[in-house]
Amino acid sequence: MNLGIAGRWALVCAASKGLGKACAQALVSEGVNVVITARGEQVLEETARQLRALNPAVSVIAVAGDISTSAGRAAALAAHGHFDILINNAGGPPPGDFREWDRDAWLKALDANMLTPIELIKATVDGMAERGFGRIVNITSSAVKSPIESLGLSNGARSGLTGFIAGIARQDGIASRNVTINNLQPGSFDTDRLRENLVEAAQEMGQDSEAFLDDYRREIPAKRFGTPEEFGALCAFVCSQHASYLTGQNLLIDGGAVRSSQ
User: Fold this and answer.
1) Cα(150)–Cα(39) distance, rounded to whole angstroms?
2) Alpha carbons 55 and 57: distance in angstroms, whole number
3) Mutual orientation of helices 209-218 and 192-204 as an angle, nearest 10°?
4) Closest by CA position to 70, among listed 15, 123, 10, 135
5) Homologous superfamily of 9-187+228-251 in CATH?
6) Percentage with pLDDT > 90 across the chain
7) What is the rounded distance in angstroms from the CA atom of residue 85 to the CA atom of residue 34?
8) Distance CA 92, CA 226 (A)
9) What Pfam families does this protein's entry cite (predicted)?
10) What is the pTM of this model?
11) Neighbours of 207 (CB within 10 A)
């Protein structure tokens, strides 16, 4: 299927590895020019090299910096004159007990996982509407649908973003101008972050890490972790010309782990 987005420009956040990188790869494969951001310059530059090799016909611009800061956002947005596609993504805040989180911990979580996406949407959505095409995808978490006890910071911040998106995605002048805003809610995907978290959890419980990973997989109806590539493919489709009637939605991609009829 031709997604009809070749030649477009995308800003992909936290794109040096994991799900952000997978989204950038899928878009580049479709002929989309990308500006990629992440804090680690060396890993980001290597990702940029790989993306250029994947499709030499597109432009790939790497902007190292912290997208949760005003300076980081300004640098990323200045890398190209306009963006047709925005992929909001950020690593989740650490797990823990809510009794231990002070105001600074909450503000940091909100900055990264709610306020930064909103600021980037503010900076790009009107231009998209004026040009008559825009795709905004927020990578959130399945924990928005089925909260995880130890991830209260993430549950709260990402749920706040979800509520905000539900309102603005349907505004006149956005949806009516072929600008869609949707959220992807990933479950357990085979990324470095997932493995690190599960290995740490196994160690804390005094269990063998590989056995713990196997037990975790068996709890998922699909009996496996998702691959970043299949996540990237869904992201690219949501950004395509074929998804113009899809907006304000939360797309759960978790192998059936969240047991819900809604």
Assistant:
1) 25
2) 5
3) 110
4) 123
5) NAD(P)-binding Rossmann-like Domain (3.40.50.720)
6) 74
7) 9
8) 18
9) adh_short_C2
10) 0.94
11) 13
* 22 pLDDT more than 80: yes
Residues sharing a CB contact under 8 Å with residue 83, sequence separation 6 or more, in sequence order? 9, 10, 11, 35, 77, 124, 127, 128
Instruction: Give which of 68, 44, 72, 177 is closest to 116, Cα–Cα.
Output: 68
Mean pLDDT of all residues belonging to the chain = 93
Do 23 and 89 contact (CB within 8 A), yes or no? yes
Residue 217 φ/ψ, nearest 5 degrees? -60, -40
Cα(73)–Cα(61) distance, integer angstroms? 14
Closest CA to 141 of 210, 95, 77: 95
Residue 18, Cβ density class (10 Å: 0-12 exposed, 13-18 middle, ≥19 buried): buried
CA 57 – CA 184 distance, rounded (Å)? 28
DSSP string, 174-197: TGGGTEEEEEEEE--B--HHHHHH
Whole-number Cα distances in Å, 213 to 19, 150, 248, 254, 256: 19, 18, 34, 16, 17
Residue 261 has pLDDT above 70, yes or no: no
C-alpha count within 13 angstroms, C-beta hemisphere, residue 246 = 18
**What integer pLDDT is reported at residue 153 of this predicted model?**
85
Tokens of 188: 């357990």
The residue whose two tokens read 């006149």 is: 172
What is the domain partition of the chain in residue ranges? 9-187+228-251, 190-225
